[in-house]
Amino acid sequence: MSNSFAFRHVARRGVQALVSAALVLAATGVSPSAVASTSSVSISGSPPTSVVVRHRYAFAPKTSDKTRHRLRFSVDNRPSWASFSSSTGMLSGMPTKVGKFPNIVIHVSDGRSSASLKPFSISVTGTTGSTTTDQPPTIGGTPATTGVVGTAYSFQPAASDPDANTTLKFSIQGQPSWASFSTSSGALTGTPTAPGTFAGIVISVSDGTDTASLPAFTIQVKAASGSTSSAGAVDLSASTYSAQQTAGSVRATVNRAGGSSGAATVKYATANGTAVAGSDYTSTSGTLSWADGDATSKTISVPLGATAFTGSKTFTVALSGATGSTLGTPASATVTVVGSGVASTSGCSQSSTAWVTTGVFDSKEFGNYVVNNNNWGGTPNQKLWANDQNCWGVTTSATSEQDSVSSYPSVTRGWSQNGDIMQQLSSPGTQDWTTKSGMGVQVSAITKAQIHWAFTAPTTVPNRWLGLMDIYFHSTNSPSYTQFPPVVDLMIDQSIMDQPLSGQSTNTSTFYALTAQQDHATVVTLGGVKYVVYIDDSDEVAYHSSGGHTIHLFTAPTTFSDGSGPSWGTHDGRHDLKAIITFFMQANPKDDSGNALKFANGSTVTSALISSSLYLNAINAGWEIDVGTSFTNTAFCVAMQSEPDCP
Hints:
The chain is built from 10 helices and 45 strands. The protein is mainly β. It has a 16-stranded mixed sheet that branches. Strands 2, 5, 8, 9 and 10 form a 5-stranded mixed sheet that branches.
């Protein structure tokens, strides 16, 4: 067992802390001088210095940190084509142009000490070894800013790239609902079906390394000249719909816009995707009708199946055969149904169709959730399997002390600091996965935020792990993956296999109990759950940005609160996150005894720790593993706003 881990908090307190901890130090046979000489974080590895254009580059450094604290990484001079993970230190991407990218430096910090790799360069070469410097693309053209209902609109930008053999890709923001867009040519085409103003349209072109954009423009669509009446067009109100299975049904709205002259009809029908009619939903079809002069919206209601399932499934609903009016866009939509099933807390096991990986940073999307292997520190033989976000697990061969946390297999809803996840799941040219997944809610507007997390994990000495939820708050609801640390990092340690300071299986002093005592921790009851809380521990300041806070909650019972052994907390917990957030939005929060909360340095909290202007962007739940061979997630649910309560 690493004594340096157990006493990292004692070492930083100086003479007074060492005196106050003298009995504990004596019990372990560690002298104060030995504690003060705790080693710092280290980083090593040999990054590849060349890559062939349009081939994947990936490098993750190896680290060691006897404090066992979570490590945070940063990089200087990151190539524009590469993404970087601040939680793993992985630099990865696929360059599309030759060139040289010098003076790249990767840093790591445990919050109180840091280390850096030596500067290195990456040369991107062509198949013939060319090292010609990449040049950015250009885009031009003047789009028409007016349109007419019923008249085709078309705009084709002119784009080029000085470099030979370059494939250009186009993207658009603010695309009008009636228009289609070509990512290969940049053409914006379509026929407006109703008058309106379509603003904020931006067309961009990229060569994979650099991007150029046209200035934002607006298209003002007017009614046809001399027209006194029109039959209009019918279309769906959106191209995607979603519902919780417990809602019983999902509704899609059909609009008639641009005119209501004459009677009109349109047919509709559902079709299977991953959801199957008869079990997951009821096959639905029919005809919607409008009388002459009727422009009211109509509703298609699709009943959802009562047999609970986990994860998310999809089906489609489509319009066809319009009469008396034209068929507008969108004419079809994808419906996502979020299952109400939660695996038994003792009955979750790997299925024959489970997703399985040993990839260090592999991840899998399940509806609004992403399961991540995240073996950034090299936990030996870590393998992750996942049936869905509720039922997944990890096995390792970590049977002996690693001297540091080596991995954080987890499930996430919302924002991720993994650039690959954000780029793959966000709309093209955006970082909107946070809001697409139902997060990104301003804290002052939160009406409900619930969490239910259940799991199984080893609870005998010498196992060492933390069952940790990391909850992130930013100043915007669509932060880039690079925006780490957040303004506020709210940590909830639901359960921990802690380190007994005396090396016994049960005792009255463990590592985090000692940390809590030194950090002026106290007890608060929020949403019916009792927590131990301390704020802005000096080893955790790297987890929030300037002006923010790191708030650390521990589910009671803990050694700090009742003298329980090293395995404490609960493996099946429910948390009223709205109640927790509301509490820390107070200017002068009080503990259960009516005393003012204090920061770890002893000063009194006199202002809100979570500002009303912040956004709740991410909830992560998983195990920070040092020693342990088998972990199984048996339930994970986040219920936000109008979503059904967690089962």
